[in-house]
Design a protein that fits this description.
By secondary structure, this protein is an alpha/beta fold. The protein contains 10 helices and 13 strands. Helix content is 35%, strand content 16%.
Length: 316
């Protein structure tokens, strides 16, 4: 199976490449600038992804069976800082890729976000009415609409929660950001009243690989972990996983933060009907922690500050 991974240097893109490589996929990796792990790819390419027209000729020549788009501006603050540029990656790029996938009759995977919801409901089915509170959530919702407009028969739109895993740079995922903050002796004010359903990026990658090999599952679905945890709990559990002090991790309520923009409080995704149709199963958050790594640049700091160096064995 021939697959093009757009945004292949990102957290999800690199995880999909590892999973698809194990399944024998022929992979082309596309990124903006970041150097890719070439052992997973037949070829690696660099494009300005804010100008998606540049991808058209390449994709029409290569004619992939699958296109996976994991490129996005995914931090709400960054979207707010430059909405026009963010829209190029968050809306224009998915639209163009959906149009190309429809022309090629290729399967197109578009990761979306639980942030399309406002967090006021108890839980959310894929059929629930979205109501984003942030510009990021609004852009993700607009991208869903564009993808399903142009390639409904060929697309899987997968709404996802917070993702954790091991990034190529060692600075992009939840646990990596927590570890860097602790290493720099920075206080972490984490919300007790924001509940999320975190999911392992490797688990999501397995889901996408499985869906790539299925012709009968297309449309809009939800995926995530099996339990709701607060951002504060997430931080505490990460510190505990690596036997590090959690003294700098402080419980905070969003109402106590002056000037904070409205944010969803509780985002719980109902994973059916997709959950019942896949071999890959959602995980508890505690089970996801075992696969997390200490970034190489922090390994010496970890050894000096952990209560138990044996809690994490470095893998090469």
């Amino acid at each position: 199976m021939k697959a093009v991974v757009v945004g292949a240097s990102g957290l999800l893109g690199s995880a999909f490449a590892r999973a698809a490589h194990r399944r024998g996929f022929e992979l082309i990796g596309v990124s903006n600038k970041t150097e890719l792990e070439s052992k997973y790819f037949k070829e690696t390419l660099n494009f300005d992804l804010s100008n998606p027209e540049l991808l058209t000729e390449f994709l029409l020549d290569y004619w992939p069976d699958v296109i996976i788009n994991t490129a996005a501006i995914s931090e709400p603050d960054v979207v707010d800082a430059d909405p026009r540029y963010a829209a190029k990656l968050n809306i224009d790029l998915p639209r163009k890729l959906a149009q190309i996938a429809s022309h090629l009759s290729a399967c197109y995977f578009h990761p979306s976000s639980d942030m399309v919801f406002d967090g006021t409901e108890r839980n959310y089915r894929p059929t629930a009415v979205p109501n984003p509170l942030t510009l990021y959530g609004e852009q993700k919702l607009n991208a869903e609409i564009e993808v399903l407009k142009y390639a409904a028969e060929h697309s899987v739109v997968l709404r996802l929660p917070l993702l954790n895993g091991n990034s190529l740079t060692g600075k992009r995922s939840m646990h990596e950001k927590v570890l860097w903050a602790l290493s720099e002796n920075k206080k972490l004010d984490l919300f007790m009243d924001e509940l999320r359903q975190p999911c392992s990026v490797d688990n999501v990658a397995e889901v996408i690989v499985e869906l790539s090999e299925r012709q009968d599952l297309r449309g809009l679905f939800h995926w995530g972990g099996k339990q709701l945890v607060s951002r504060y709990e997430i931080g505490k559990k990460i510190a505990d996983r690596f036997c590090l002090s959690d003294e700098l991790i402080a419980p905070t309520l969003s109402k106590d933060v002056l000037g904070l923009k409205a944010r969803p409080k509780k985002l719980e995704l109902i994973l059916s009907p997709l959950q019942g149709k896949l071999k890959t199963k959602p995980q508890m958050f505690d089970d996801q922690l075992a696969d997390l790594k200490i970034p190489d640049a922090l390994y010496s700091w970890f050894r000096e500050n952990t209560r138990d160096p044996s809690c994490y064995v470095r893998r090469f």
